[in-house]
Amino acid sequence: MKPTKYYELMQKEQRYKDTYNPLQALFQQDGMLKSLEEDIKKQEIEKIIDEELNEEFRIGGHPDYDYLIDQIKSNDHFLDDSFREKDVKMCSLFIDLTNFTKRALFISEESGETIEEIADLKQKAISTWIKLARYYQGHIHSITGDGLMVLFGGKQLEDQDEWTIGARAFLLSLRVLESTDILNNHLKETLAKKGLETTNIHNLLDIKVGLEYSPNTLMNGQGVIVNTVAVGEVKATSFEVDFSAKLLGYYKDAKSKLDVNPKYGRLVMLGEKFIELIEFKEDVKICKLDQVYKKRMFGTDQSRTIHYLDCTLYKNNTVSLDQVAKMCNVYASYEEVTNQNIKVLKEGEKIQHG
After folding, report:
1. Residue 243 CB neighbour total at 10 angstroms
2. Can you tell me the distance from the alpha carbon of 329 to that of 279, in angstroms, rounded to the nearest whole number?
3. Which of 23, 29, 131, 322 is the 20 to 30 A CA-CA neighbour of 174?
4. Is the Cβ–Cβ distance between 320 and 19 less than 8 Å?
5. 3 state DSSP class of 204
6. What is the model's pLDDT at position 29?
7. Which of 225, 207, 25, 252 minimizes the C-alpha distance to 100?
C-alpha cells in the first residue's frame, strides 16, 4: 500500500472533507434544497468558488510558473534552461464535448438549432467545468476548441503529495461526467421547444475525459519577443501531458464495450502513469483496450496501453478525498494520523477545561 498525506489536506481544506457535491451546489435552486444544512453547504461551496475566481484568476499558463515568462527578455531566453523548471509533477485532465462540429453543420436546416444556441450550450459547459476545476484547485491550462485542459500540481500546499494530485483530478473527472445529464436536460428543453426529437442519443451530448500523470513535466515559456517583452505563456511539456488528449481518440472504442444504456457520461480514459499513481483496488474494474498507442522513431518503438473506467458506481457517490482513498491501495502515513490525533485531543482538552 502507498503512504499519502491526503488526510492533512482534508484537515486544512474543508472542501476535500465534505460529501456535498459541488455540482449540485452550482445547479440546485434555493427553493429546491431539502434542508437548512444543504442550504449552508451550497452557500459555502459558492463562496469557495467565488474566492477561487478572483481578480488574480487567469486562463492559460500556470500561476505557480507564470513568472518564467516574465523573466524572459530575449528570444535566446526561450531556449535557456535557466528560464525553465524541470521534473514538475503534474496530472493532466483533458475534457472534450462531442458532437459540436456536427451540430454546427446543421444550423442552416429548417427548425434546427441556431449558432447562438450552440454557443450558449458550449459556454454553459465550459464555465461549469472551470468552476469545478477551481473548486478542486486545478489550473485551466487552455481552452481548446470544445473543451479544456486542466493541470493539477504546482508549488502550493495541496500539490505536495503526488497521490493527492491524482485524487483531486479524479474527483473533477467525476463531476464533469455528472454534468452530462445536466447539459443534456438543458439541450432537451431547447429541442422540445422546436419540436425536435429528444430521445435519440445521436441528438444529445457526450463528454470525453482523459487523465494522465506526468512526473517529469517541463514548465517553459513559449512565445515571441516584442520590444524586449515576452508575449506568450508558460506551457506544460511532456509526453504524458499531451497523451491525456490522445486518450480521447480511443473513447469510441471504449464506449462500444458498454452493454448498458445510456452510454454517455460514464467513461474516463486513463493512462498508464495515472493508474500507477492512484493504485486503484482490484474491485475498481479498470479495463484495458486491445488497441495500443504505438509509434516508431529513431529506429526505436514506443508504446502505451489504453485503459478506461466505467464511473457509473462512483458518480454522485465519491465526493471527498477520503472516499477516493477507500477505492485505492493507500493509507494516511502513521506520523500524519498521529499528529492529527494529538491535535484533536488537545483541542478536546481546551474545550473541556475552557
Report:
1. 24
2. 6
3. 29
4. yes
5. coil
6. 56
7. 207
